[in-house]
Amino acid sequence: GMDLNGLKEFVKDLTQSAEHRAVSRALKCFAKGQLDKAIEILSEAKAASPENADILFDLCRYQILANRGSEAAEALRTVLRRDPRAYQRANEMIEELRARHAPVSPLFDAIAEHFIRQDNFKSALEALERMKAEEIRAFMPRHRGKWDGLRKNAPDAKMARTSLHSAYYLALCHEALREYDPAAGIYRLVAKNNPEDLPKVLARLEALLAKDYQNAALRVAVGDLFLRSGREEEAVQQFALVLETDPRGGQSVAERIAEYLKEKGDRPELRFILVSAHLAARSSGAALDEMRPLVDSGSLLDRVVPALESLAASDPTRAVEARLLLATALARRG
């Protein structure tokens, strides 16, 4: 009789031939213009062999031609999740469908998801940008549900990889729709809960800032994340830019730096930004308080002296105090 391995091989041959037969039967129907029949044959075949790439690719192709975009995207997602190397074949199929003027944009959702799993956010965003706004919005709830549930049940917990993928997918959808604030909100939560993802998040937020240059709140967030990752010089640059582009950002910059200095001890460059933030927020008293330690340690006096001179001239209520500190600073500078 037949041994168990032989039996397994026999069953495998049978299923392979069933899959192959389904693909060729569907192709014949398609050639006769019976698109719905072709889709029906492959849907049944897929129920029996849910992971077969030939079935899924042809099903995807026919569904696009039948204007059933979201089902087609689902078929392509299944293939790419199972085998990332199928991306090349997916690309060829999309080109071939575009040559027939078929509406391929829903398929870019599956392509974007593929790139997110590879941590290639730039390519994922390019894929999403090839979709129509209403298509992006139609696909978002799939991930939004996961994300909202997560935020509700475990707002401070470290996120598993699949949850992170949903978070990045949603944030990149917002980017593609030019909704920068909700995108930034998601990135900041990711950075908070998964510090090991900080470099990735920072790269995205810097890309956002390049598009939304005047967004002071976003720039404060980026400065904050630089501080968290110990990149103080870059934090200083971002905070200084906030104060240049939007003096109203003074308050939030001041709060963030004060908190950091309390935790880490003195950092003259950051302290001077704190002084500038207080001056931008018109808090002369606070600015003077923060300049004292700089004068005492003789740090950055070339910047402290002009700041004190302009404060003495511009705020009569603090002029005496400013002049006294200025005298000490000039004596120290010698």
Give the N-terminus to C-terminus distance in angstroms: 103 Å
Sheet with most strands: none
Q: Helicity level, as a percent range?
A: over 70%
Poorly predicted parts: none
| Bulk shape | elongated
Rg from C-alpha positions?
30 Å
How would you describe what is shown here?
With 334 residues, the protein is mostly helical. Helices cover 79% and strands 0% of the residues. The protein has helices spanning 4-31, 35-48, 53-65, 69-82, 87-99, 107-117, 121-128, 133-153, 161-176, 180-193, 198-211, 216-228, 232-245, 250-264, 268-280, 284-297, 301-314, 319-333. Helix 1 (4-31) packs antiparallel against helix 2 (35-48), helix 3 (53-65) packs antiparallel against helix 4 (69-82) and helix 7 packs across helix 9 (161-176). The protein is elongated. The mean pLDDT is 91.
